[in-house]
Amino acid sequence: MSVIEDVVARVEDWRGREVSIQPLSGGLTNTNYKVLVDGKPHFIRVPGASTELLAIDRDNEHHNTRAAAQAGVAPRVLYYIAEYNAMVLEFLDGRTMSKDSLNQPGMPTRMAQAIKRLHSGPRFLLDFNMFRLTEYYLSLCRDREIRIPDGYNDRMQAVRRIEQAMNANPLPTVPCNNDLLAENYIDHDGQLWLIDYEYSGNNDPTFELGNTCQEMEFNEEQIREVCAAYFGEARADMIARMKLNMIMSDVGWGLWAAIQARISTIEFDFWGWAIERWGRAVEKMDAAEFEGWLADVQK
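RE: above sequence
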């Protein structure tokens, strides 16, 4: 019996009912399925191999997914199969978003509103800090001789300067998804839902905002729109925090991609993604505005 078949068999409420399993595409760390039970759809996520190396805490993910559902921005957890860390979720029959669809007029505001709703919800189980995660990923790459893009270690001084500047006026942490790729937004019933809480944790809200702006490759106007929709105005200090966190998003997730290039069985160009992300981070660290961003967050 395959893992997904065993997971389905362990849901007692489904025994004796008509069940069909349909694989879904799109997961970068897990395998996803649509499971019809007497015609009613459910979503099941089964963790991929060796994902514990990526610093994913499945108990944290389970707890935080339930908390996000309480906040009204995530699907409900219907069942949890602890042996496989597999969650059975309410199926959202909506439109999975793309970078192009989230770049349409008005979407940055809708994204910020959904994010603010999550951030106003119940606190998450654990905290998330991209500076610490970057250190862990670098040590893992050293210990396992995992290839990383050239120049990473040479730029760690700039990363330390970013952390020092951000800590001058720290913001209260809030429950964050921390990995809002385009595909982690679903447009359903007139609202944007936020899914996939593998890397969720209490964090600086401007990491969430900067990370998702970087994923969408938003321009200056769109970044200001997100900031204004979230904070009520496009404040220079908050935009600077978002810009620095856009760098940290690519620094950390670039290493994630390099590790995935070694360990993942999913067919995806993770190494190409690592190179792309690192290139974007370096470009921003070398930008003329970099020193201004550091100064603005410390005012």
